[in-house]
Amino acid sequence: MAAIGPKRLIGYGALALLWLLVPLYLQDATLNTLSYCAVFAIGSIGLTLLTGYAGQVSLAQPFFMGVGAYTAAWLSTEHGLPFLVFAPAAIVLGGLLGAAAGAVATRLQGSELAVITLGLLVFGDYLFNEVVGITGGENGTSAADADLAIGPLNFEEIGGFTRDQSLFWALWALVALIAWLASNVARRRPGRAMIAVRDGARAAEAIGVDVRMAKIKVFTLASAMGAFCGVLYAGLQQYVTPVDFDIFAAILFAAMIIIGGVDRIAGAILGAIIVWGGQQWVSEQADSSLLSGIMKTTDGDSGVITVGAFNTLVFGLLIVLVLTFEPQGLLGLWSRLKARVAGRRRPAPALAGQQPEVVDTTPAEPVGTEEGSIR
Amino acid sequence: MSANEFLQTFVSGVSLGGTYAIVALGFVIVFSATGILNFAQGAFVIFGAYLTYQLGSAWGLPFALAVLGSMLICGLLAVSLEMAIMRNLTMKQEFAAVMVTAGVLFCSEAISVTIWGIQPLNLGDPWGLRTVDVFGAAVSLSDIWTLIVSAVLLGATFAFLNFTRGGLAMRACVVDREAAVAQGINPRRVSAVAWAVAGAAGGVAGAMLATGTAGVNQSLALASFAALPAMILGGLDSPAGAIVGGLIIGLIQQFTALLQPEYLEFLGSRFAALTPYIVLTIILLVRPRGLFGTRQVQRF
Amino acid sequence: MRSILGGSRQPVAVLALCLAMLALVACGRDDGGSGGGGDGGDLATAPGFDGKRFKLGLITVTSGPVAGANAPSLSGIQTYVKALNERGGIAGKYPVDLVLRDMQYDPAKTVQAYNATKNDVAMYAQVFGTPMTKAILPQLRADKIIAVPGSADGSFFQDPNVMLPSSPYETQMANVVDYAMKKRGRGKVCGAGGEGALAETVKNGLEYLREEAGYETGPTVSLPTSSSNLTPQVQQLRREGCKIIWMIATPVPTISNTLSAAARLDYDATWTSTNTGFVAAMKDSPVFDYMKEHYLQANDGTLYGDTDNAPGMQALMDAHQKFAKDTLPEWAWMNGWVGMMMIEQVLEKAVEMGDVSREGIMKASDSITEFDLGGIQFSPKWGPAGEREVPAKFGVMAPDDTSETGVSVVEYGLDASPAAREFPYPTPEK
User: Fold this and answer.
1) CA–CA separation, B96 vs B93, rounded Å?
2) Within a domain: residue A258?
3) Which residues of A223-245 are buried (b: 16+ CB within 10 A; e: fewer)?
4) Is the dihedral of CA C355, C357, C359, C363 positive or negative?
5) Chain C within 8 Å of B175 (Cβ-Cβ)?
6) Is residue A306 part of a domain?
7) C31: chain A residues, CB-CB within 8 Å
C-alpha cells in the first residue's frame, strides 16, 4: 500500500482535529443536527456506490433504511437484544433484500429501474404501516432501547459528555470507517467493475466483467449500508415511523448524493451535511428576525409564505441552482476551479480540457488489466 | 360481485386510469424527445389546475377559455424552463437533469401554495358531479371528458410525430442525435418544442384532474408520482402506451380496492396502492421495455 | 493509489466548507436550558415561566396536504392569545408567548420538536395529530407536561397529561348516530375511516354501539389517501345496505371524494361525521347539494354568531373581528379558541394556587371540576385522570349554504345518549 502524501495527511489530520473539537464548542441542538447528517451520510455513501459508481438509479434507499431501523427498534425493544446483535441482523437483512432487488433489477435500466425502486418504497410504506405488531403502524414505534453500545462501552454516554456530544463523536467516526470501506471497494476491482457497468455494460461484459453479479453485489452493499444507516437513525432519533421512509426521503437522498457530487464518496458526505443541515437551518431561521418578516404561520396571518412552504422552496431552489451551474455537484465545481487555477499556473498537460480531476474516479485503464488477467 | 357492481368498478377504474393516462402522456412526450424523466411535469399539472381556477373561477372567463389560457401559460413556462435550465445539462447528465426537474416540482408546490393558499378551491368546471347512466352504471361526465381530452392529445401527438416535419425531427433526434444534427436538425429547437407541448399537456391534465370534486388542492403534486407506473408499463416512449398503461393501472387499483376487503382482508387496505407496482414488476421482468416501448433492452 | 476522497486537496476542500458552515451556526456552548434563573416577583419561576411571561408550545403543520386542517385552529389559538395579552395575560398579570414548530405531520419530527422546545414551555397549546401526540406521550408523562392535542382520540380522554379540546370520537359518534336513528329512521350503521388508525377507531366504536345500544351494524371501509376515486369503497357500503355511516377521515380531499362517489351513485344514506370545519370549503363544490340532504355533523356546542345560546360568543367574535377577520371562524377555529380557554383556566388556577411548576400545573388541572367555556362548547366534567366524564349535552349541525361557515345548527343542547356517556375510555396505568 503506497504511503499517503504529506498534503493528504495534513488534510486528514485537520479533519480529525475538527471532529474532536466540534462537540466542545457547538450547541447540543446543532450537534444533534450534525449527527443526523452523519447518519444520512452513511446511507448516501451506499447510494453513491450504487448510483454514482455503478449507474443504477435507485429510489429505494429509504426502504432499506426503514428495514434497518425497524429491525433495530423491534429487536431491542421487544427482545432486549444489544447493538452487537441487532445491528448485524439489520445489515444482513438489508443486504439480502438488496440482493433480491438487484437480481430483479438486472434487466432494467434508467427510468424503468427508478420506478421499480419506487415500487419498493411503496412496498415499504405498505409493510411499515400494516405489520402493526412489529412496526406500530402509523403511530410508529419507540426505539429508545436501541442503544448504540458495544458491551460496557456506551457511545451515547462517553465520559461526562452529553448524549449529543457523545453521539457526534461516535457517528462521525463511523462515517469515516464506512467511507474508508467504501473507498476500498471503489478503488479496487469491484469498484472498477461498477464503473464499467455504468459506462457501458456491453463493453464491460465483453472484457470479462460479470455484469449481472456486479449489479447484484453493488445492490447488496448499498442496501446493507442503507440498513446500517437505519439502525443508527433509530438509535439517534429513538423513534421510528413510516413517514420517515417515504418518497420525500428518497428525493432527499438523491439530492444529497448529487449536490455533493454524484460519483464521489466525499460528495455523499458533503451533500448530507448541506442538504440535511440546510433544511434544519432554514427551519430555525424562520423564527429569527432575518426571515420572520415574510414568514407567516397560517393563511390569515401577516406575511408572505409559511415555514413549511419556505423550506420546500429553498430545497427546490438549492437543487435547481446547484445543478444548473454545476451538474457535477459542489465537489465538481471545486475540481473545475482547481483545474482552472492549475491550468493557469503551469503549462497544463493536453488533458487539462478533459478535466482529469473531475472524473478522476474513472479508471485510466480498463478493468481487468491491472490484475493482468482477462477472462 | 354482481354485474352492476362489476360494471361500476370497471367504469371507476377507467376514470381513475384516465387521470393517470393524461399525466403520463406529458411525461412520455418529453421522454421521447430528450430521454429525461421529467418530474417538472408535475409542476405543469399543478399550475394548470391553479391557473384554470384563476382565469375561470376567479376572473370569470368561460371554462374552455380558461383551460386554453392555462395551457398556453404552462407551455410558455415549460419552454422557459427548458431554455434557462435544461439546456445547460448534457445528454450524459441524466441523473442531474432528473433531479433538477424534481427541484422544479418542489418549487412549484411552494409557489402555488403561497399564491393560492392551502384550502381546496373549486375549479368551476361545467360538469360538476353530473353523471350519465350507462347500463345501470353511473359514469361521471368529467371523467368522460378526461378520456376525450386524452384521446385528442394522443391523436394530436401521433399526428405530429408521424405526419409533420417537426415530428420527424423529434424522432430523428431520439434515434441518433448526431446524425440528426448532421441533417441540419436543431436538437435545441426539438427539445424546446417537446417541452412546450408537454407543458400544455400538463396544463390541461391538471385542469382535468381538478374537475374531480376534490377541487384544486395540493394533492395534485402527488398526481405525477401516481402516473409513473402507468407510464413505465406502457413503455416510456410510447404515447399510446401511456394511455393503455394508465387504464390498466386504474382498473387494477379499483378492482383490488373492491375485492380485497372481501376476499383478502388480511392484506389490509393499503394493498390496493401496491398492486400497480406488483403488476409492473412482473411485466417488466418479462418485457423490460414495457408494453409498447421501443427502447434498447439490456440482456443482463 | 487513489485517495478515498478523490484528490490530494479534497480533504481540505471538505474541511474548508465544514468550517464555513460551522461559522454560520454560532459558537460557544450553552449547557443550560432556559427557564429558571432570575427572580421576578412573588411567583417563583418555572419552565415556561420567567416570572413575568408564560410560554406555550405549538407543534403543528404549516404546509403540505394536512396543513389546511391545522390552519384554522392555529389561528384560533393565536387570536385568543392576542386577546388574552390585551387583558394583561393570565390572571391579568402574565402575558403569554407562543413558540411554534412545524413537524410536517411526522411523529419522529414531533419528538424532535418536543425535545427542542420542552424546556422553554409551560404547556403545549397544540400538538396536531393523534400519531404525533402518541409519539411524545411517554415523554409528556416523564416530564409532567400537559398538552392539548389536535385530535379527538378516545385514549387521550382520561390521560393525565392530555386535555382534549372536544369530545372524543366515540362519544360524538354515539350521540350523532343516536340522533340520526331517531330522525332519519332506524337502519344499519356502518363506518368509514381514514386508512389505518382512524378506521380502527371507527370499527371499535361501531362494535361498542352494537353491544351497548343494540344497533345493527355493518362493515367499516378504509378510505385511502392515495386514491382519488373512492367508488369501490362506497359500493361496498351500498352493497351491505348501510343506511347510516359514521365517517372520520383526513385530509379533506378524501372526504369530498368519498361523498362525491356517493353522490354520483345516488346513494341514499346518511353520512355522519365528527366536529370539523371542512364543510365550509365544500360550499362551492358540486357535492354540497348531496351533503345538504345526506350529511349530519356532531357538535360539542354552537356556531359563530350564536350569542343567544353562548354568552362567551361575543368576546370570541370581537377578538376575531379585531385580529383575524380574514380567517373563516368555522368549527376548528373556534375549537382552537376553546382549547386556549381551557389552558387559561388551568394556568389561572395554578397562579391562584401559587405554583406554576410542572407539578403545580398538573395539580391545578386536577382540581378543576368543570371548565367555563361560555356556552361555546359544552364542558366535560373534569378532574384527575380516570375521574373525567364526557359533556352531558351535545348538538347537531347540517350543511347550509346560507351560512358563512357552511353549516348551521340543527339542534343545540340535546342530552347525550346513554351509550355516549358510558363509553369506557381507558385510564392509563400510573
Assistant:
1) 5
2) no
3) bbbbbbbbbbbbbbbbbbbbbbb
4) positive
5) no
6) no
7) 162
The SS3 of residue C275 is coil
* pLDDT band at residue A301 using 50, 70 and 90 as cut-offs: low
CB contact under 8 A, C232 and B258: yes
Taking CB atoms and an 8 Å cutoff, what residues of chain B touch A118?
225, 228, 277
> Which long-range contacts link B132-135 to residues 24+ away (Cβ below 8 Å)?
B134/B7, B134/B11, B135/B7
B88 in C contact zone (CB under 8 Å): no
Residues C186 and C121 in one domain: no
Chosen from B12, B121, B134, B270 to mutate, greatest number of chain C CBs within 10 A: B12
Q: Tell me the pLDDT tens digit for each residue of A207-222.
A: 877 888 888 999 999 9
pLDDT at C15: 60
Question: B11 to chain C: which residues are within 8 Å by CB?
Answer: 231
State the Cα angle at C318 between C317 and C319, rounded to 5°. Answer: 90
Does residue B212 belong to the interface with chain C, where contact is any CB pair within 8 Å?
yes
d(CA A165, CA C66): 35
| Domain CATH number, residue C340 | 3.40.50.2300
8 Å CB contact of B277 and A119: yes
Tens of pLDDT along B146-158?
888 888 888 888 8
- Per the structure, the complete domain to which residue C111 belongs is given by 44-167+304-391
Q: How many domains does chain A have?
A: 1
Mutating which of B20, B109, B119, B281 best tests the A interface, going by the most A Cβ atoms within 10 A? B281
The amino acid occupying position C13 is A
**pTM listed for this prediction:** 0.85
Give the model's confidence band at A374: pLDDT under 50 very low, under 70 low, under 90 confident, else very high.
Answer: very low
Do the Cβ atoms of A316 and B280 come within 8 Å? no
* Partner-chain residue, chosen from A211, A309, A324, that has the shortest CB–CB distance to B100: A324
Alpha-carbon span A29 to A25, nearest angstrom: 12
Cα distance from B188 to chain A (closest Cα, Å)? 17
Domain boundaries, position B162: 3-221
Global ipTM = 0.86
Mean pLDDT check: name the lowest of B146-160, C172-186, C375-389. Answer: B146-160
User: For B128-147, what is each residue's pLDDT tens digit?
Assistant: 888 888 888 888 888 888 88
Which residues from chain B sit within 8 angstroms of residue C221, using beta carbons? 261
- Asked if the structure places residue C294 within a domain, the reply is no
CB contact under 8 A, B261 and C290: no
Asked whether residue B234 is assigned to any structural domain, the reply reads: no
Q: Do A270 and C17 touch (CB under 8 A)?
A: yes
In 3-state terms chain A splits into helix, strand, coil percentages (rounded to 5) of 70, 5, 25
- Return the C-alpha cell found at B243: 394511455
Residue A303 maps to a domain: no
CA distances from C189 to C158, C232, C394 (A): 27, 18, 20
Residue C173, min C-alpha distance to chain B (Å): 23
Q: What is the spatial distance between Cα B105 and Cα C366, in angstroms, rounded to a whole number?
A: 50
Per-residue confidence band for B91, with pLDDT thresholds at 50, 70 and 90 = low
Q: Tell me if A135 is assigned to some domain.
A: yes
The CA distance from B250 to A368, in Å, is 48
Reduced to 3 states (helix: H, G, I; strand: E, B; else coil), residue C268 is: coil
Query: Taking CB atoms and an 8 Å cutoff, what residues of chain B touch C286?
Result: 122, 128-129, 213
CB contact under 8 A, C14 and A269: yes
Closest CA of chain B from A103, distance in Å: 10
Residues from chain B that touch C224, judged by Cβ atoms under 8 A, are: 257, 269-270, 272-273
Nearest C-alpha neighbor of C126 from the set C339, C345, C341: C339
- Three-state DSSP class for C410? strand
Which 3 state secondary structure label does DSSP give C409? Answer: strand
